[in-house]
Amino acid sequence: MVSDEVKQLAQGVQNKLRDLIGSEKFVEVYKSVRMGLKQKRDGRKQAQKIVAAVDPERHAKRKQRIAAKHREHKRRKIMAMKIGRWMR
Predict the structure, then answer these.
(1) Are 45 and 37 in contact (CB under 8 A)?
(2) Euclidean distance between CA atoms 57 and 64, whole angstroms
(3) Which of 31, 52, 67, 80 could lock onto 59 through a cystine, CB 3.0 to 4.6 A?
(4) pTM value?
(5) Are 64 and 53 within 8 A, CB to CB?
(6) How far apart are CA 75 and CA 53, in angstroms?
(7) Could you give the C-alpha distances from 24 to 21, 33, 64, in angstroms and in order?
(8) CA distances from 61 to 20, 41, 85 (A)
């Protein structure tokens, strides 16, 4: 989660860049950056699918590790909510 303050700062920087280099050039560069990020993500996703097909045991361990991390974050969030309720 990104705080509102950081979002506003990023939006301000984005607007300054747009004013500095011009709207057309900004849109072109912004689009190319987003496309590059999408290609990287797709490549990682494809690599994970290959690992799942070639080495299912390794893939299962990875999934278990991710699920354990998710459970831990959820437990921490619930504890924080309980403490917040208790403090009122």
Answers:
(1) no
(2) 11
(3) 52
(4) 0.62
(5) no
(6) 32
(7) 8, 14, 46
(8) 49, 21, 36
Containing 55, the helix (H) or strand (E) segment is none
Neighbours of 32 (CB within 10 A): 10
Residue type at position 79: M
Residues 10-19 have pLDDT tens digits of 999 999 999 9
Q: Return d(Cα 47, Cα 23) in angstroms, integer.
A: 36
d(CA 15, CA 11): 6
Locate the domains of the chain by residue range. 1-54, 56-88
The answer to whether 17 and 26 are in contact (CB under 8 A) is yes
Residue entry with tokens 């045991």: 57
Cβ atoms within 10 Å of 51's Cβ, excluding its own: 13
SS3 1: coil
In this structure, what is the dihedral angle of CA atoms 3, 4, 5, 9, given to the nearest 10 degrees? 110
